[in-house]
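Ticket reopened. Same input as before:
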Amino acid sequence: MTAVDVRGQVAPDQPARISRLHRPRGRRRSMSGLIGLIGLIKGLVPLALLLALWQVLGDQDSTNYPPPSKWWAPVRGLASQGTLWPMLRKTLVAFLLALAIATVLGAAIGLLVGRVRPADRALGPSFEFFRTLPAAAVLPVFSLVLGYTFTMKVSLAVFTSLWPVLLSVRTGVRTGGHALLDVADTLGLSRRARLFKVIVPALLPWIASGLRIAAPLTLVVTLLAEMLTGVDGLGVLIINAQDSFLIPQTYGLVLLAGIVALVVNSLVAVFESVVLRRHGVDR
Amino acid sequence: MNLLGLGTAVLFIVLWELAVDLLPHSVLPNVPSSLDVIRATPDVVGHETFWLAAWHTTWVSVVGWLIAAVIGGLIGLACGLSRFVREWTTSSIDVLRALPAVSFVPIGILVFGQSAKMELIIVAYSACWIVAISATTGFRDAHDRYRDTGRTLRLRPLAVTWKIVLPGALPHLMVGLRLALATSLVLTVVAEMIGNPVGLGYQLTYLLQALHTSQVFVYIVAIGVLGVIFNAALVGLARLVPAAAADGHSGRSR
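Engineering reply: fixed in the latest deploy. New output:
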């Protein structure tokens, strides 16, 4: 995450993540399926227990810590007013668009700097600096140039979540991509065939591992931009609820954001395991 | 020296200057040129406000990070050494980790008010999972790899943990701590922008609303520089740790 998340930290340089790519395939398979499901449910027990205790032992009329059962009604209220779903949709559209652009752009630049040494040396230091800038800090720049708009929200998210994909693809090209690209040269493939038959499949596992960090980051930055600038979306609802001291509603909306994040994370995990199964092991 | 890289960075700055100077004003309203920012720098840095803000952001990030390091380290230790604990908690941690940290700032403000305590709790909460995850991996690997060594040497369990597992887990732990410190800084700035009106984050929003845009850019660069300093400090710290230097991140073999 992410770190980072806003967890800003963008660098997919954890060895655990890289070495996961080289793990034998059998283990991953046996992890999936029923055993995985049981493990998942088992691991969720402490969290469920915590929420149950909060519900049962917590003060029913507590202002700051309303019991979980009271969270849902005010969120449903927003839904019946017709504000919740349009706002959520705006957040999701911005998120998906930003993630798509960041992936394509990150993979393209990553391919360039991974393959062409001078380009890497030229762009490296500037990229290092851009990468360390927290999304919250660059937000003023984007809002000055683009105004408080949808475009600003998407651009900011692209700017921050580009780096994990870029770095991951760059590492991928460095470690194994060269050989594959040389094979493509030897076979005399056309540009189009090279791109879709060699380059994209070879880089998919690396794109996927970059996405693991980029996807949650994109969501966080989208929410952050909404919260700070008031551009329509789920983030605005959360900040409005807080400003009006609608405490149970704030909890409910944060939970909703959490559910969205969970769905996103699981989709990315599924994508990664599919990619690894199909392309990951032959390298 | 990477002159090419330096040249490209300078080129970016020159392009920015040209874009602001040559494009009609309506395209980039309120955007300061690079020269404006350079001119504004002495004013900003010469003022006490800047250093007070920088100090606040620094101590909150570092203290929040330390709390996260202790809590995350303990969670990681429990999960790494005991398979039982790991099996019964992993997905709960995944869920808590996935919750977007930003969205906790409003709850933090409601419950703890606009205070440094609120900032610390938000920072520690979001950073502790990063430490916990890498500590779990580190402790688990070290435990699995070196447990038999400890048995052969007839060390007691506490000695095994202290003398073998902890040094063995350090390389992973250092990676987690580095990422966590970056996250701490980000969350501190965010908490200051939305919640507690002090520090670099607040200066950023305040100056932006006042349309002192050149000064905003100085603060952005300052936050970036603070991030670079934090990272460099931890890389330096990692070098001091002998086990981390000896084992290295990449020296692991499976």
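Confidence is low (pLDDT under 50) at residues 1-27 of chain A. The CA atoms of residues 114 and 170 of chain A lie 4 Å apart. Please confirm and we'll close it.
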